Amino acid sequence: MLRCTFLIIFSLTAKIKAEEPGVYFKIEENSFLSDENTIWNGKVDSLMSCSQICARRAACKSANFMAKQGTCSLLSAGQTEQAEKLLKWEGSFYLEKVGSPGDSSSQGTTQSTAVPSCQTLCSQSPLPSSGVYWIDPDGGSQANAFKAYCDMQTEGGGWTLVWSYTFTNYKNFTAKSNAITPRPNWQVNSNVNVPISTAPPLNETDYNAMNFSQWKQLGRQVLIKSNINNWLVCHPGTGSLVDWQEGDVSCQIVTHVTDTCKDRSAPSIFSPNKGFGPMFYTSGYSNSTYYYFDGYTGNNWPTHDPCGENQGNHLKNVVSPHGNIFIRA
Questions:
Q1: In the Cβ-directed half-sphere of 261, how many Cα atoms lie within 13 Å?
Q2: For the CA atoms of 306, 309, 315, 321, what is the dihedral angle to 10 degrees?
Q3: What is the separation of C-alpha 222 from the centre of its chain, rounded to a whole number of angstroms?
Q4: With b meaning 16 or more CB within 10 Å and e meaning fewer, what string describes 266-288?
Q5: Reported confidence tier of residue 286, pLDDT bands at 50, 70, 90
Q6: How far apart are CA 140 and CA 15, in angstroms?
Q7: Distances (CA, A) of 291 to 75, 199, 251
Q8: Is-contact 232 251, C-beta < 8 A?
Q9: Residue 226 in contact with residue 257, Cβ under 8 Å?
Q10: Which of 29, 66, 112, 217 is the most buried (most CB within 10 A)?
Q11: Can you tell me the distance from the alpha carbon of 290 to that of 244, in angstroms, rounded to the nearest whole number?
């Protein structure tokens, strides 16, 4: 049995295994969660006893142990979701169920079990489904962990969604008034006038963008999905979207959304700022654009061309037209 003493003075966190098979707790020393409407309150003789009582109750997801009073309070899943609101009190201990070290099925399901990226979830068996998980890209304290959407199916899974966008004038796609919206807080022409977002999108039609500075913490492979243009996976070369660097990229079409121009190759060059947003294109910049993320409603338009001709060859009459960018290491 793995036991980590709760009298550690060099760290505020430890893990302890309860007697119930496979149940482990993460412990926050000198911390507790407000325990109104608890599942159960009672007297116990030790931290281990409190953990065992919680372990035996499926509804218990966390607990408070007050050493001086010898009391234990069992908390529900709803209360545990508020774990970022921990209070400080000497002699208190907050216990949160995290599963066993050999069982990663709970990883990413709470703030305290946040993972570095969606790709980390690929080590689980069976592979988790696509959905929202807690991630902590910069590591260290999980106090700044946040929720993000993970695509666990496309091209092996493990993709973290960093941007979901739509269009300002989809019906008149090649009009100057059409642009992507919103946009990430990347550096582009000062005339770009669509709204900026720094809120991680929680699904593919939650139109928001993760702070651009965090993208490189997730990796440098890029998955571009759209319901009006073909999907691409692009690996960096001398060029990189995440590093905001112009140059060659290695892209492949992973899903044909349209049968139009199925014989065309994927783009091979990335440019971060040819006007009012980044683009993926092939040689012959003026007429070979595949994706152009134009964010200005006063000029140009956001190319989504499966033919790579910088024309309006995208799918027409699509309900909720949108696009997404995902990142993976």
A1: 19
A2: 90
A3: 14
A4: bbbbbbbebbbbbbbbbeeeeeb
A5: low
A6: 16
A7: 49, 23, 12
A8: yes
A9: yes
A10: 112
A11: 18
Alpha-carbon gap, residue 121 to 206, rounded angstroms: 22
CA dist 17 and 19 (Å) reads: 7
Q: pTM of this prediction?
A: 0.71
Structure token digits, residue 144: 């700044």
Contact 52, 18 (CB under 8 A): yes
Q: Which residue do the tokens 């642009």 mark? A: 179
3-class SS at 290?
strand
AA identity, residue 142: Q
Read off the pLDDT of residues 114-164 as tens digits, 9 standing for 90 and up. 999 999 998 776 788 999 999 999 877 788 999 999 999 999 999 999 999
CA distances from 35 to 47, 77, 240, 311 (A): 17, 12, 49, 60
205's tokens: 């039609």
Non-local CB neighbours of 266 within 8 Å, separated by 6+ positions:
232, 234, 251, 252, 253, 290
292: helix, strand or coil: strand
**Rounded Cα distance, 164 and 183, in Å:** 9
What are the φ and ψ backbone dihedral angles of 303, each rounded to 5 degrees? -55, 130
What rounded mean pLDDT belongs to the chain? Answer: 88
In the block, residue with structure tokens 């993000």: 148
Q: Which two tokens stand for residue 137?
A: 């890209």
Both tokens of 161, joined, read 């969604």
Q: Which of 89, 76, 5, 97 is nearest to 47 (CA)?
A: 5
Could you tell me which of 294, 151, 168 has the C-alpha nearest to residue 224? Answer: 151
Three-class SS state of 155: helix
